[in-house]
Design brief:
Blueprint: H1 2-27, E1 42-44, E2 54-57, E3 62-67, E4 84-89, E5 97-99, E6 101-103, E7 113-120, E8 126-132, E9 139-146, E10 151-158, E11 166-173, E12 176-181, H2 188-196, E13 202-207, E14 212-219, E15 222-227, E16 233-238, E17 243-249, E18 255-262, E19 266-272, E20 279-284, H3 288-291, E21 301-307, E22 315-322, E23 330-336, E24 339-344, E25 350-353
Parallel strand pairs: 6-10
Antiparallel strand pairs: 1-25, 2-3, 3-4, 4-5, 7-8, 8-9, 9-10, 11-12, 12-13, 13-14, 15-16, 16-17, 17-18, 19-20, 20-21, 21-22, 23-24, 24-25
């Protein structure tokens, strides 16, 4: 009798797991394909072959690009090479990418850069904050940019018990930033199980030398984060929920949700068009192809523009879409004076003139 009960319970458990996995496949848009939307004047950047997970552009047109991310469960074409930060000058007629030298005693061999954010101080000094995953832990590295030497000077590493599974960052002051946690569990197996169960345990935190706190929670997988030009609103991508949360920022750095924009595709990093205030989102139209990578049937790419984000009916349009034949696994898109850089988690980088 006991064996029969055990078998029944096992069968029920397997059935529930099967149902949850099918629901997970549906949430992950396992069978979705995209219709191509490809601007005519585009080319791949030769120097960027191993990803360009995040991109941030100075008002002067200098673009910083994080490359070489090693992330559990996702492809990597250069697993033995450390990550790098590249620079491109988008004012040039045919811009090329150049890896920046890093000085100041930083351990470059363990560099595993993820999300990045630029901060310009009152004296016009440029600082680059980088989410780093040495030994698959999470830290935030602070560098000073030396434009004449085309280099980064390492200044400081920030660690904190709340800075776990950090994905992206947006800096609003000297050592003052918001960061997203994309998984509650740090074990890759438990992280996948967390997504299958649709747990909503991830969050956005605020960090400063004086205070560190969770300011928004309840996300499936908090991912990209950006701030409006006037710094009144913070935009958070919940990749697994396929949406963007529009949050109001308060004087004490807390965030209050104003609305959620559903997009029907998995949203990765966010940037803001400085000319219009529109949100640009790098998206994964069929992410199961990322988790189960097949070069013969690669993951596609998608870039969306969201206009009038504070209105009752924001307008969503497709800037770029490809089935993977050109660009695989788009994670970010950033614009400057009619030019756009489209980055990927592990693949190539596309430059277009719109």
């Amino acid at each position: 009798m006991g064996k029969l009960v055990a078998l029944v319970l096992l069968g029920v458990g397997l059935s529930l797991v099967g149902e949850m996995f099918l629901a997970f496949r549906e949430r992950m848009s396992a069978s979705r394909e995209v219709q191509p939307v490809e601007p005519e004047n585009c080319r791949l950047i030769e120097e960027l072959e191993n990803g360009s997970e995040d991109i941030d552009i100075l008002p002067s047109g200098l673009a910083f690009i994080s490359s070489g991310l090693k992330y559990p469960g996702l492809p990597n074409f250069a697993p033995d090479e450390p990550g790098k930060i590249f620079l491109m000058d988008l004012n040039e007629q045919n811009p090329r990418a150049q890896a920046l030298e890093i000085s100041g005693g930083f351990d470059k061999e363990l560099f595993n850069p993820h999300g990045i954010s630029i901060f310009i101080d009152k004296d016009h000094t440029v600082y680059l904050y980088v989410v780093n995953h040495p030994h698959m832990k999470s830290t935030v590295e602070i560098f000073k940019f030396e434009e004449q030497q085309l280099s980064l000077v390492y200044l400081k590493t920030i660690k904190h018990e709340l800075l776990k599974s950090v994905n992206d960052i947006v800096v609003l002051g000297p050592e003052q930033f918001y960061a997203t946690r994309d998984h509650y569990f740090t074990n890759p197996f438990l992280s996948l199980f967390e997504m299958i169960l649709d747990l909503r345990w991830t969050y956005v935190l605020f960090y400063s030398p004086r205070e560190v706190k969770v300011v928004a929670k309840g996300f499936c997988s908090a991912n990209g984060i950006a701030v409006s030009a006037d710094q009144k609103y913070v935009y958070v991508a919940d990749v697994a929920a396929k949406n963007i949360h529009i949050m109001e920022k308060h004087d004490n750095w807390d965030l209050t949700q104003l609305k959620v924009i559903q997009l029907g595709t998995l949203v990765d990093n966010l940037t803001v068009d400085p000319a219009t205030g529109d949100i640009l989102a790098g998206c994964h139209p069929n992410p199961m192809k990322l988790l189960i990578y097949n070069p013969e049937d690669p993951p596609g790419s998608e870039v969306l523009r969201i206009q009038n984000v504070l209105s009752e009916k924001p307008r969503v349009s497709t800037v770029y879409a490809n089935n993977g034949s050109v660009l695989q696994g788009t994670s970010v898109a950033s614009v400057y004076h009619g030019k756009i850089l489209i980055g990927t988690v592990f693949h190539k980088t596309l430059y277009c003139e719109l």
